């Protein structure tokens, strides 16, 4: 059997549809259909029942999935171990981070790294969830989190402070002695409800006081700058904005932590090690901004 056939089979099994598998694999729908049909024809076994709701595994398909996943783990482990022996300071590294870190903070540090290591190309992947470093979806993660996955290794760089921010135009419309609960609030939606800052804000905002909700802190930043209300934001986002002022001081209960992470099989790869070491030193120069010590 061809490993590519097993890889495509697993994508369809996990997604339950050709279109979902095509998105995961980065190919078109017809390619997945053709490969699955050809695979079934070659082995003489039907692996999927074609249902109106999608592709469902047959009994043979379920058994195939268990075996294919064992092969997948072996192939991925071999890939990581071989990559971990790469001593070249050249090639590509895939770095996963959040859109807020990439848009509001990391740019100068990435520029400095690329100037110091011109032979290493950075593929920057932005996502609010952890990319799977075990599956080599990324080599390195730079993320604010209080609980990094146990499968990864790395270092905690510092705290990531949060405070409440609003535009001067909004603050001019309210009494300076207004209590927090009486403000108009800008809040995250349920996709970010796990954030400590979101839990804190839910405890003080009135039920009818939320003006805007967003699944992205960049959305709240824009709404706050427009004068729509008060947003709870990381200090590295709020403090550099001339169009925002702090409404509260940073609260340690709202803080996250910034981590540099990789898979243990990749930490000896020269370009991964170079990136981790360089970024740890470079980001240290901005600890005051990250920990909220530059604001007013």
Question: What does the secondary structure layout of this molecule look like, with pairings?
Answer:
Elements: H1 3-15, H2 18-25, H3 29-43, E1 48-51, E2 54-57, H4 59-83, E3 91-97, H5 99-116, E4 120-126, E5 140-144, E6 152-160, E7 162-166, H6 168-171, E8 185-188, H7 196-204, E9 210-214, H8 217-225, E10 230-234, H9 235-238, E11 245-246, E12 256-263, H10 270-284, H11 287-290
Parallel strand pairs: 3-4, 3-5, 8-9, 8-10
Antiparallel strand pairs: 1-2, 5-12, 6-12, 7-10, 7-11
Helix pairs in contact: 1-2, 1-3, 1-4, 2-3, 5-10
Describe this structure in words.
- The structure is a single chain.
- The chain has 296 residues and is an alpha/beta fold.
- It folds into three domains: 3-83, Arc Repressor Mutant, subunit A, CATH 1.10.10; 91-156 and 257-288, Periplasmic binding protein-like II (D-Maltodextrin-Binding Protein, domain 2, 3-Layer(aba) Sandwich), CATH 3.40.190; 162-254, 3-Layer(aba) Sandwich (D-Maltodextrin-Binding Protein, domain 2).
- The protein has helices at residues 3-15, 18-25, 29-43, 59-83, 99-116, 168-171, 196-204, 217-225, 235-238, 270-284, 287-290, and strands spanning 48-51, 54-57, 91-97, 120-126, 140-144, 152-160, 162-166, 185-188, 210-214, 230-234, 245-246, 256-263.
- It has a five-stranded mixed β-sheet, with helices on one face. It has a five-stranded mixed β-sheet with strand order 9-8-10-7-11, sandwiched between helices.
- α7 (196-204) links the parallel β8 (185-188) and β9.
- α1 packs across α3, α1 crosses α4 and α5 packs across α10.
- The longest helix is centred in the first third of the chain and has 25 residues, at 59-83.
- The model has no long low-confidence stretch (mean pLDDT 87).
